Amino acid sequence: METDFISRHKDSDTFIIRRSSFFDAPVHLKGNLIVGTSCNFWSDLATTGALKLGKGVAVKGSVRAESVIIGAHSVIEGDVKTEQDCTVLDGARIGGDIVAGGKIMLRPNIKAGIVDAMGNIEITGKSYVTELRAGAKIIATKHS
After folding, report:
1. What separation in angstroms does the CA of 117 have from each of 33, 44, 57, 74, 101?
2. Could you tell me the pLDDT band of residue 103, with boundaries at 50, 70 and 90?
C-alpha cells in the first residue's frame, strides 16, 4: 500500500488520506480514517474505527468500518457494512447494500440496494433504494 498519501495522528489513532489520492490494492487500517475529497480506491476499504469519506470518493469494492459517513456524490460499487451508525450524504451511490448495527441516515438523492439497520432509518427527501429494513422506526422527512 502506498503510504506517501497517508499521515497519522497518534493521539486520536486517526489516519488521514490526502485528497485526490488513489490506491490500487485493498486498504485495511486499524484505527479511525478520514479520507479527503476525490480519492479513488480500486478495491475494498476497511477500518476498525470510524470512517469519514470526503466528497466525491470512489470505492470499487466494499466498505467496512465501526461507523461511516459517506461524503456527498461518492460512489461505492460494493456493500457498506458498519457495526454502529451509517450516514450517506446527498447524491451518493451505493452499488450494493447498506447494513448497519445502529441507525442509518440517508440524505436526498442517494441510490442503494437494500438498506438494513438494527436501529432507525432516517430518510430526508427522495432516495432510490430497493428495500428498507429497520429494527426500529423508519422516519421520512421532506427535503426543503
Report:
1. 22, 21, 23, 21, 6
2. very high
